[in-house]
Amino acid sequence: MQGSDTASPGITAIVLAGGQGSRMGGVDKGLQVFRGQALARHAGQRLLQGGGVQRLLLSANRHTETYAQWGWPVLPDSLAGYQGPLAGFLAGWAACDTDYLLAVPCDTPLFPLDLAQHMLATLQTQNARVALACAPESASHPELRRQPAFCLMHRSVAEDLAQFVNEGGRKIGAWAQRHPLALVPFNRPQDPPWAFTNINTLADLNGLQHLTDTNAP
């Protein structure tokens, strides 16, 4: 990992597309099409469109040649056996040369465009080192819930992350609680209720596509 004396200000973002897609029958979830684009590419372009991100990375463990065609560095996990999103976090830190790393899952395609800016502002205001998004999961479930795969981390926690994972830790929330933590609410008037709707199955994908065809940003 880069030392803090070599880091530049700003945010590197990593799109997490390294899972097994078990609830989709084992397909590569990041390559499933939403609004005419692969989910992972859609997420990456949304991050860049929203601004606040200096560099974009992709975490993927299959079809890496396909992902590489989009022009962003593709990082497979250093841990074997699909160890979960924290393995993707580790891969991101190995290639990150900024003060902050923002992880975003590929399967939540309509996250707010100002995600990076809002999370960074909240983290800095609260003097935190890790920030997790909190949002309703749908219009029918309006309560705020932690969305831990949307995680902004300061470089000072990278070594502890490696230690936690090497000791067998796999839960984002359990690791995040080891550090000054900011919970970033996304229930603002401009945030639609489907902004953090997660796609786990092909039915979810088709349903979200249908729901938002005419009125989602």
Please describe what this structure looks like.
This protein has 217 residues and is α/β, with parallel strands linked by helices. Helices cover 29% and strands 24% of the residues. The chain has helices at residues 39-50, 64-68, 85-95, 115-125, 158-166, 172-176, 202-212; strands at residues 8-17, 33-34, 37-38, 55-60, 74-75, 98-105, 130-135, 145-154, 181-185. The longest helix has 12 residues, at 39-50.
Summary?
By secondary structure, the protein is of the alpha/beta class.
CATH superfamily: Spore Coat Polysaccharide Biosynthesis Protein SpsA, Chain A
> Number of folding domains?
1
Largest sheet report? 7 strands, mixed
Quaternary: single chain
Amino- and carboxy-terminal Cα gap: 36 Å
Helix fraction bin: 25-40%
SSE series: EEEHEHEHEHEEHHEH
Strand order of the largest sheet: 5-4-1-6-8-7-9
Which structural class do you get from the secondary structure elements?
alpha/beta
Question: Which regions are unreliable across 5 or more consecutive residues at pLDDT < 50?
Answer: none
CATH architecture assignment: Alpha-Beta Complex
Number of strands: 9
CATH domain class name: Alpha Beta
Shape: globular
- CATH fold-level topology: Spore Coat Polysaccharide Biosynthesis Protein SpsA, Chain A
Tally of helical segments: 7
Q: Strand-residue fraction?
A: 15-25%
Work out the radius of gyration.
16 Å
Task: Report mean pLDDT, rounded to a whole number.
Answer: 90
Q: SSE layout and pairings?
A:
Layout lengths: L7 E10 L15 E2 L2 E2 H12 L4 E6 L3 H5 L5 E2 L9 H11 L2 E8 L9 H11 L4 E6 L9 E10 L3 H9 L5 H5 L4 E5 L16 H11 L5
Parallel strand pairs: 1-4, 1-6, 4-5, 7-9
Antiparallel strand pairs: 2-3, 6-8, 7-8
